[in-house]
User: Which sequence fits this backbone?
């Protein structure tokens, strides 16, 4: 009987993996297909001919290739990198400071934390318009800071929440031992708390990075040119109406997804640690 | 030891950055949104805002597209979220202790980390009527091609499918992490006592995981209310207004055509109220104050 | 490690801050169908004016329009030049530069050979003016055309079969009534011997595409003698959907009939409610449909298609059945908040000059707006049908409203027509009356 269970398990797992990976597979192969293979019947699952043309702006096979060439992707890539890294960094710092205060000094109590968490639940669309108005008065529309600040609103609360649970795991006796030895808060924080909660910090910055990198709505509303637009906007520029050049679009999609997927895979151990929310007691 | 006063002051300094950030960037939008919801103001008409009281809200009650977007969002809530949770839990248990577990886990993380916009592109290709792989698979089973993007019913199903595809890994990851953190000896003890694998799961592990399941439930519920990227990329709300998620509808009203700020604000206020209520439920159910030691 | 990251980031920010302002950079926004032509025109222009750098950014329709509005209402000036869809004229007019006033202030920049009178009069108005303000130069002159597989219509065997089945001659339909039978004939599901899978490629998606496709069907009724008598003459700013006194005209028997024509053609098309520009283009390109109402820019792609060679034999162009095709097209204008108005003015002058208009047609099939180009011997040799089909199409074309409320009213109508096509609402005057009510509300706001 055991082999029956094993076989069923095997089949189920196979189906699951197929379901979750097939769209990715399709995207990746399309990025390397020639234009006549993008849409065929039956669909070309294993392309016979590979081409790098989609990445080099050569493929298109029809007019429109010039305007969908991937060579124009560079400014967007830079914007995405700068913004996502800044958001990861800044939100972790702010969250760590706040989480430490809440964990150690119980500043604000549950009311304060509730407020922080509810901000994360704010639907971006509700904030997008007013933020647009604020930023246009401050001349921040279409700048990196517009996106960094707006992303921070949504990543920091979550990070704070997770870091509070991490800091709670670190016994306060360690802090007190440090005080006895003459350290002040800053030194305690830097030399003791932070290193011990490194997995939490890694987890939180990874999540912030993922969220910022893939964020679409704020970038759509708050930016208007390649000075500050991110990769998702680059992808979303011509999704309707005109004949879509799927090859270059898939290629751009690949470029967009590769950094964040690779990064997440590298950091997955930390992701796992962070995602228990401290809810499961040992 | 520091005295109490110094602790409070230091604590306050530490949270200052967070406070400034949020006060500046969330209070103003909130006030603006509530204020504008009582005005007629459209950026495209080049006129000043005009006070109209509750008119926007009355309009929402008459608005057919608004109600259809609410019903679509509810549809997703009652189908996508339960599906994701069941599947996520199922997969977590399925994969555990299997050979190649790490590789499987890694591949399952991918849909969750892919930017929704990229997922939208991939699925839009899959849903192509004439040449898409999905219709191809259907044809292999002798089924007719489905108009995923042209039929109301199937477009909704299509969005549902993408949402499940994208977020089941999140549930899976959380539950999986939770399973890992349950000490083995508890489970083993029960197995030694004669319980079967299934009972161990039902009576020990699932109850322990319950707080986590609640967490993911409410996070997903609130995230479905925010659904936008996929709709934008794959269906653009169509056909008709079949796949207008509530957030997408706010976008259409407030930005896509005519910048009707007043009406969009009213819609947003309602959304905000709903989200606030749900968030408070979350915090209550989880007994978050205990978890956080407050 | 942390310090390194912070330092490098500060560095990046500083670099960005100082990197503003070298050569004059023009940001040109364009719809995808205009982008390739603009791109080449920009290249030509930059060669003649090396101190001006031009960047053409293609944006899909749904993205372009809100972005233009966003920019001009906030006064940001992220774009200098943009193509604008003729029906958005009213909405964007306040934010666009008055070109005539500008020309008067900078006579040195005006090209003496520009010849403003050379523009086809209808074109010059709809792609150039809002009221008295000249907000654009005509760029893409367009009415929809009826493209069809000439080789199939001329095939003797098919002609005989059609005659036998329908009792009349097989010819390119001149009314939508005729089109139904022809479309049925060319749809495999109804006629297993059909050489094509589908008779007609229709695009009725839930986007502004449906709005203009509707006019192809409503226009003939609106502009018939009965229609003119009932609704009055068509106002160029308010379009065919309104009566002469600016009341909705579509909530009428004529509107219902127009939608019925659309419904009747649905079975002969591939996924009409899920198809847009791209899908019908692709379908015709692969030889899957026999007829397709479309814009001229598609021809550039079709000319490259292996299934449509030899092109002159296989592809025929006719005026739209009903003879009131919807007008489309784009003007190109300057942002009132642009910081590079002189350079922008020079560029659009070139792009819409005789030379520019000719290049955009010959190479990219972007419809010309100048009489001289249509009469040009090279153009006549290349596309003799331009004079015969294009001019009358443009002149008899039905128009969408160009008023500022256009996006909102369009969305309301599209939603309802979409529902009717889906079978969710009855095709009746009552249903259309609901839309008319909504329109009146929006217009009175």
Assistant:
């Amino acid at each position: 009987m055991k082999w029956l269970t094993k076989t069923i398990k095997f089949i189920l797992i196979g189906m699951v993996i197929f379901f979750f990976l097939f769209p990715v597979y399709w995207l990746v192969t399309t990025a390397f297909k020639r234009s006549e293979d993008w849409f065929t019947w039956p669909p070309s699952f294993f392309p016979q001919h590979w081409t790098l043309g989609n990445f080099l702006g050569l493929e298109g096979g029809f007019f429109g290739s010039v305007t969908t060439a991937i060579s124009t992707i560079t400014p967007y890539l830079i914007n995405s990198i700068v913004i996502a890294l800044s958001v990861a960094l800044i939100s972790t710092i702010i969250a760590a400071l706040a989480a430490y205060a809440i964990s150690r000094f119980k500043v604000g109590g549950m009311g304060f934390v509730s407020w922080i968490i509810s901000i994360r639940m704010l639907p971006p669309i509700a904030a997008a318009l007013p933020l647009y108005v604020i930023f246009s008065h401050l001349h921040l529309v279409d700048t990196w800071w517009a996106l960094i600040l707006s992303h921070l609103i949504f990543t920091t609360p979550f990070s704070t929440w997770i870091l509070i649970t991490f800091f709670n795991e670190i016994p306060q006796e360690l802090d007190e031992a440090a005080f006895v030895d003459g350290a002040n808060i800053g030194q305690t924080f830097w030399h003791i708390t932070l290193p011990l909660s490194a997995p939490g910090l890694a987890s939180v910055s990874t999540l912030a990075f993922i969220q910022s990198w893939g964020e679409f709505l704020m970038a759509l509303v708050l930016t208007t040119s390649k000075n500050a637009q991110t990769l998702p906007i680059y992808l979303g520029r011509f999704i309707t109406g005109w004949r879509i050049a799927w090859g270059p679009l898939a290629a751009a999609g690949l470029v967009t997804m590769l950094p964040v997927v690779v990064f997440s895979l590298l950091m997955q151990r930390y992701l796992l640690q962070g995602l228990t929310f401290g809810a499961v007691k040992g | 030891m520091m005295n109490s006063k110094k602790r409070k002051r230091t604590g306050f300094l530490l949270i200052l950055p967070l406070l400034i950030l949020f006060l500046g960037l969330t209070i103003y939008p909130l006030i603006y949104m509530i204020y504008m919801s009582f005005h007629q103001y459209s950026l495209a008409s080049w006129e000043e805002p005009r006070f109209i009281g509750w008119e926007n809200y009355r309009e929402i009650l008459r608005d057919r597209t608004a109600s259809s977007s609410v019903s679509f969002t509810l549809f997703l809530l009652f189908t996508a979220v339960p599906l994701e949770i069941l599947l996520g839990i199922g997969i977590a248990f399925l994969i555990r202790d299997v050979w190649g577990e790490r590789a499987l886990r890694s591949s399952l993380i991918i849909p969750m980390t892919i930017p929704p916009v990229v997922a939208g592109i991939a699925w839009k290709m899959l849903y192509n009527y004439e040449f898409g792989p999905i219709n191809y698979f259907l044809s292999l089973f002798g089924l007719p091609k489905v108009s995923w993007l042209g039929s109301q019913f199937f477009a909704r199903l299509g969005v549902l499918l993408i949402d499940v595809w994208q977020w089941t890994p999140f549930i899976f990851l959380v539950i999986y992490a939770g399973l890992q953190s349950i000490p083995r000896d508890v489970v083993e003890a029960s197995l030694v006592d004669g319980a079967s694998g299934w009972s161990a799961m039902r009576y020990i592990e699932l109850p322990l995981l319950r707080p986590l399941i609640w967490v993911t439930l409410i996070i997903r519920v609130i995230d479905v209310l925010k659904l936008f990227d996929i709709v934008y990329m794959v269906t653009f709300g169509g056909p008709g207004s079949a796949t207008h998620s509530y957030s997408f509808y706010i976008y259409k009203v407030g930005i896509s055509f005519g910048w009707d700020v007043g009406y969009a604000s009213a819609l947003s206020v309602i959304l905000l109220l709903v989200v606030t209520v749900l968030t408070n439920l979350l915090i209550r159910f989880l007994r978050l104050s205990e978890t956080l030691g407050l | 490690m942390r310090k390194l990251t912070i330092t490098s980031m500060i560095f990046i920010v500083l670099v960005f801050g100082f990197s503003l302002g070298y050569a004059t950079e023009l940001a040109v926004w364009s719809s995808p169908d205009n982008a390739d032509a603009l791109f080449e025109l920009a290249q030509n222009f930059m060669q003649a004016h090396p101190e001006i750098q031009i960047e053409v950014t293609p944006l899909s329709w749904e993205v372009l329009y809100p972005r233009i509005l966003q920019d001009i209402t906030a006064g940001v000036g992220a774009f200098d030049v943009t193509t604008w869809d003729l029906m958005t004229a009213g909405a964007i007019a306040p934010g666009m530069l008055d070109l005539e006033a500008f020309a008067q202030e900078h006579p040195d920049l005006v090209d003496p050979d520009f010849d403003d009178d050379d523009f086809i009069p209808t074109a010059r108005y709809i792609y150039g003016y809002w009221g008295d303000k000249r907000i654009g130069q005509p760029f893409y002159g367009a009415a929809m055309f009826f493209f069809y597989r000439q080789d199939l219509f001329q095939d003797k065997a098919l002609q005989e079969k059609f005659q036998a089945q329908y009792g009349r001659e097989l010819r390119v339909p001149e009314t939508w009534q005729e089109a139904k039978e022809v479309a049925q004939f060319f749809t495999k599901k109804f006629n297993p011997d059909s050489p094509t899978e589908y008779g007609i490629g229709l695009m009725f998606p839930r986007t502004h595409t449906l709005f203009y496709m509707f006019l192809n069907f409503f226009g003939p009724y609106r502009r018939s003698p009965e229609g003119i008598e009932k609704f009055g003459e068509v106002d160029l700013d308010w379009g065919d959907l309104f009566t002469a006194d600016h009341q909705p005209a579509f909530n009428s028997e004529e509107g219902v009939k127009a939608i019925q024509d659309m419904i009747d053609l649905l079975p002969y098309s591939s996924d009409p409610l899920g198809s847009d520009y791209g899908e019908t283009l692709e379908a015709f390109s692969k030889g899957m449909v026999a007829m397709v109402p479309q814009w001229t820019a598609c021809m550039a792609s079709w000319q490259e298609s292996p299934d449509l060679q030899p092109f002159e034999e296989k592809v025929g162009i006719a005026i739209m059945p009903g003879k009131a095709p919807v007008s489309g097209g784009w003007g190109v204008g300057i942002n009132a908040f642009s910081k590079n108005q002189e350079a922008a003015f020079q560029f659009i002058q070139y792009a819409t000059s005789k030379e520019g208009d000719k290049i955009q047609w010959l190479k990219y099939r972007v419809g010309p707006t100048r009489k001289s180009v249509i009469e040009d011997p090279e153009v006549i040799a290349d596309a003799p049908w331009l004079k015969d089909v294009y001019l009358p199409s443009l002149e008899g074309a039905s128009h969408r409203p160009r008023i500022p409320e256009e996006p909102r009213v369009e969305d309301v109508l599209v939603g309802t027509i979409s529902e009717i096509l889906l079978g969710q609402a009855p095709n009746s005057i009552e249903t259309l009356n609901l839309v008319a009510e909504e329109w009146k509300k929006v217009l009175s706001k």
